[in-house]
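Quick sanity check, PucR family transcriptional regulator:
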Amino acid sequence: MPALTLREILALDAIRDTEPQLVAGEGALDRPVRWVHSSEVYEGANFLDGGELLLTNGFGLTDADEATRRRYVRELAARGAAGLAVEVGRSLPRMPDEVADEARSVGLPLLALRRVVPFVRLTEAANRAIVTRGLSGRSVRPWGADHTAALLADLADGQALNQPEVEARAALADFHPAPGARLVGVSVHGPGHLALAAVDRAARVLGGAGALRAAFPGDVLALLALPAAAGGPGAGTRPGSARDPVRAVQDAFHAAAEPGVTVAVGHAVAAGAGWLRWSETLRAARTALELALTVPAAEPEDGQGPLVTSSRALALERELTRGGVDANRDRLARLVQHTLGPLFEWEAAHPSDLVRTLEVHLRHGCSPTRTAALLHIGRQSLYQRLERIESLLGLEVDDPDLLGELLAATCAHRVVRGVRAAAAGGLRTVA
């Protein structure tokens, strides 16, 4: 489907409210308009890519001489601008003759906006119409007229976008993050109706957080917009979660999701930080979900509720598999054998759980109380395991110089073991 034309832009209600008068460029009304911008920078033509309709209140033209005004119009035409719309009646009492004359000379459509309407209203209406027309013509994407799914897919796939387009498409999907809101990407795996319901319930638990969500093959993808105070009614069940958006979202899904559903939460980004940050939190959530589905959890699971994790909880797993699991497989295997070899030799001859015990102990600050509780064993049994580990490895597990290597090795063991099981069972692996 062809792009929206300048003639069609002028027919929009918001534009008609300005009582536009066409001063020049009658023969160019059917040229396509790629985007609508407002700017008062009169040396900014070089920043245009072509196809833009430029709105200005004319303030910068009031004190400019005739030559400067003519040069401004010529530069816009040279950059391929679709047209220039100048507000008259405030900064400019009327359209300057030399601006109109130069526009006629170079064939640039020139509009006089005779009634004041906020430019933000004009750009939002016009760009939303442009985006809608563009989406309706995308036959290669499988999402059809589902603007929400199309936007989430483009963000999660790292498609080349721009901020005005993302904002317009988000508004088209009725997603309006409030100023100061924090966005958190979420990827949910499970039966489609349960995954979608979990997102909706979690948003309610969070006090009605805005949600942009859609179902895809393999997962439901969502962006949750949390107000500046991250918690909400029902959230904040853990210390600090009211100040931590990621923890608040995890707590909400613990309360909202059914058993058998796996939830991965990305990091929190400022809504106003730009579309690249929106993309990053969605991609982090998807990578975390992939790892959650292929790598055994570091800690024992009770199996009574959903599995809820986050990209930061899996930060070490993500770093160890950066570039793909296959590319790192041999390196990880060498790390595991070099660091933990004696433990595997012992476990081959003596049924035990030394490697997992070591990882749980390290992940929880070497706290005997916490480790014993998570492993459902007594503290005396834990001490016996730790003594066996230290004896076999010839080191002290709480030596600060060794913590990084030991934790990386135990994590690498889970990754390698999980990838083998995933390959045997036909599950996905992290790309």
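Posting the structure with no commentary besides this: The domain at 6-130 is CATH 3.40.1390.20 (Udp-n-acetylmuramoylalanyl-d-glutamate--2,6- Diaminopimelate Ligase; Chain: A, domain 1).
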